[in-house]
Amino acid sequence: MTQARIVPLTPDPPVIERLADILVAVVAGGGSVSFMHPLPRERARAFWDGALAAAARGERLVLGAFVDGSLAATVTLHLDCPPNQPHRGEIAKLMTHPDHRGQGLARALMEEAERHAVARGRTLLVLDTATDGGARGLYEQRGFTLAGEIPDYALKPHGGLTGTLLYWKRIGAAGAAASGPA
Questions:
Q1: Alpha-carbon distance 152 to 2, whole Å?
Q2: Where are the domains of the chain?
Q3: Kind of pairing between the strands at 124-130 and 88-96
Q4: In CATH, 5-179 is 1.20.1440.170
Q5: Terminus-to-terminus CA distance in the chain, angstroms?
Q6: Over the stretch 116-144, which tens digit does the pLDDT of each residue have?
Q7: Distances 158 to 22, 35, 48, 73, 154 between C-alpha atoms, Å
Q8: pLDDT tens digits for 71-122?
Q9: Structure pTM?
Q10: Rounded CA gap, 89 and 172, in Å?
Q11: Angle (nearest 5°) at CA 29 between 169 and 168
Q12: Helix (H, G, I), strand (E, B) or coil at 44
């Protein structure tokens, strides 16, 4: 596993440019992260501008994994849930630049996102991933439970439909209670 420095990201222009690089590359490679290929850089930058502005308002946390000083991967923890769900967070946009895959960055980002969620009093995480080509194995290794599949949920970046898999995980005190005594 590559040593990475994982930190919350701020709306600095070089960070936004590198996030745009990652998003464009992931979509070009077929990653189902809400965008279609080809993804114009200005659209990718606008997405990250908005995401980091939401982070500055405390609505989410955008984490970045830096390898040798370069932003290589990212994940978002959505925190702005409805009033009847203050205990919940949602994982989104877990992406690793293709040049940095297979180095354990996604796993490290998930661990850090979970740690931040627990620190903010969250006891339940949810996420979804594409049925075709998603990160199912990673999420299941991290203890997420499959709730079900919705068929034909979204278009793949290069066309054609894919389903989505919905996952959940109890964390913090709720997660410890669910797993029983050690």
A1: 36
A2: 5-179
A3: parallel
A4: no
A5: 27
A6: 999 999 999 999 999 998 899 999 999 99
A7: 17, 10, 22, 22, 11
A8: 999 999 999 999 999 999 999 999 999 999 999 999 999 999 999 999 999 9
A9: 0.95
A10: 12
A11: 5
A12: helix
